[in-house]
Write a structure and sequence with these properties.
Number of helices: 3
Oligomer: single chain
Number of strands: 15
Helix content: 10-25%
Largest sheet: 7 strands, antiparallel
Distance between the termini: 83 Å
Radius of gyration: 27 Å
Structural class: alpha+beta
Strand content: 35-45%
Length: 263
Amino acid sequence: MDWKHAKSLFIIVFILINIGLVVVYFNKVNNSIVQESNAQSEVNFSKEGIDIPQLPDYKNKEMQAITGSSKSFNADELEGVYSLTEKDTQINKDINVDLDKDSKQESFKNFINKESFKGKEYQYQNNNSNKNKVVYEQNYEDLPILNNSKGQIVFEMENGKANKYTQTYLDKLKPGNGDNNNKQKIVNAKTALETLYYNTYLKKGDKVESVRLGYYSVVKEIGGQVLVPSWEVKIKSEEDGKSKTKVLYIDAIKPESTVLEES
């Protein structure tokens, strides 16, 4: 046996084993750092004096930006007596039906499904605080298009009764073009709230009244809209002894990028 070659081979094997051990060690250290960092970023909202509701759970949900445009209606598509305004993009209709503020949601929905254009694509906005309106929002893939006057059915209430409604509709909703618009996993609702907390939008004494996932438009033109997956957070706070409510929108894929306030 050539002991010189054997010795060299032993040294090489020894070095490779040590390199492997070093790699394993650094991987463990890095994983430990990441876990510690994640643990430190978590916020205990109860200890911070911030009241939050039961948060929605969309485990492993993937979304992407979408585009659409306001539909221009024509008389052939509509039944009954309607009037059209805003370049035919809004339907106005007087109604005389037994719908009051205390009516069940099913009653409004049955009316919408029967009387409205593609009424099945709308769902009730349960965090609407305007006592003079009942609002239904257009959906895309079972999620609402948030705070968008171009995709809503609004019942106007007078003396507790619905007397007319308006409807708008976002047409040709589809994934936006672009190589970087593949579906991506969204962050959970708690991460969105933590983003607000670390950017001082959420403070001690605040109450989070609702958290919803949907699509929020960063471009609201009749000719075209770009809507991004977003968390909508409604916050009630006290300032100078007065109650104030604000609605914020956080990008659900890249929450650190943009926080927008309701316009």
